[in-house]
Specification:
With 626 residues, this protein is mainly β. 11% of the residues lie in helices and 44% in strands.
Amino acid sequence: MRTPVPTSPNPLVENSGAPVARGRVTAVHAGWRSVAKRVITCTTCAMTVSSLLLPNVTWAAEWVDVEGVRYDTAHNGGSWAWDGANDLALNNYTGGPISAAGELNITYSGANAVTGTGNRGISVTDGKNEDASLSISNKGEGSLAVTEDSDDAIYCDGNIDISGSGTVQATSTGDYTGIKSDSGDVSISGSGNVRAEGTNYEGIEANNVTISSSGTVEAIGEDYGIGASGDLVITGGGKTTAKGYYGVYASGNLDVSNGSSLTAHGEHGINCSGDSITVSGGSKVDAAASDGIGINGCSDGVFIRDGSIVTVTSKGDRGVDAYGALAIEGGSTLTVTADGDDGVNAGDKIVVDASTVKSTSMLGSALYSSGGPIIIRNGSLVEALATTDEKNGAIYSCGSSGVSPTIDISDSTVTAIQKYADGSGPGDGESSAIFAETQSGVDPAVISIKRSNVTASGGQYAILSGHGYKSDDELKGDRGTIHIEDSNIALPQGAHIANIEYDHEYQLLYGKVHYLGQTLAIGDNPTGVTPGDDAIVKEVTTKAPEAPEPTPAPDPAPAPEPSEKPADTVKPAAASAKPTAAKTASKVTADLPQTGDRASIVIAAFGAAGVAALAIGAAALRRRLS
């Protein structure tokens, strides 16, 4: 027999004299769970919204030391003031060193001078709770000069950021650095002037260095002007000068863009060991080496693009030494002068595309590729002058693997001259103005000239293409070839392509090699020529056919007489709607708490979030019980 349901006057309390509504109790419990979920959800949302309304709150500097006195709380020293957090203001400060732990933002106005004697001028190190970072900027007109005689002038364990329109000078007269980040990056932006000098060490030293300033940056050092263990990026259109044993030394990449200017002078100009050196966007680079290589390095190569201008001078070595390719493209200009070795030496291909290259070598080739083709095309202008007696060419490609043509000149103007080192006349070695050679095991060398004006003057050959064999067992019919298409040999008259066989020391094999190839000759020589033959052409000029005159366009038909213009019956368009959205967004932004409102903002925001969540929960409960 089923037990009767107890009654209770209160439907939520059993045995109170009224029937107990079991289903209602279950519904109420379920309602409480639903309300709890809503309260939690609303609280989370409110907390999220409040966090979005907060500024980025960062930890403050843990302490600041000025002239040997440490401060743990805010302090105003007259010409300097620390807010007890991140911000230190200098106003016509003249005094001793400044240091801090954690994050420090220095703003300066007026003329400021910080002098360190035995200590770093400005130094920021890691704190107990926060990594080090240092930012320096001006407020109004101003300058900041930092000097140190036995340590770094400006130092930070972490990142250093210098911005604004003022002037910052950092000078270390000891064996240290002007501006140094020990394990972070250095960034320079704005429109001001920055000078960093390490008299006996480095101007600027960091992991990555980024200069996006439209002003000037000077970095002077005994070792490196700018030394980066990562990348060096120069953009923003400003002027950067780096001088030292290495003007620029980067273990990563170098990128100069957006009309920026870089001058790098030293015993070595620019040395990079990353993937690439890229100069683009109409930028300018001047690299000069008093005893070493002007521009050196990078596995992928050196790339000059978009109307950029690069000038390289080397007094004792190569001008440009690209481990990978060298490309000059898009109306750019490369000018190279090298006294001690090749003007340009590339481990991969050399491409000159719609650009200008002028290269002079006093002891080597003007343009030399040891592992790829040399391609000159699309209206390019190339002047290659090699003043040497060695067995090289002014334009010389050798050892190319599976690449044909080895030297390809099309729709361009090329002047290639090889002559005595003293400049008195053509050299007398096995040298030529345009020279390509390969060895057995790869495709034979090919020199191709199409629709181009070429002037070539060499010591023994104007143009020579050879394919070599190390032994008689390898000897077969493949030979280097020359192809002249859609161009005429203007001088000397009667010059033609002739076969040749010759021997000489192949520089990559370090042994005597027998070559089958082609050169230019005059006269009747159906079986070919041999080295030293008077028939061999040493100077040649080819001419591209002249482009036909364009057909003039017919005169346009006269325009009809304008008829009388009817009265304007079109109503003017209504004025566009007011940008209320932008104004609203601006007002919302203005109402947000600003950076610097710290603890009070946090407490107020979280308190507001809690009250909002409880109110939402209570309203939900009332709706459930009603």
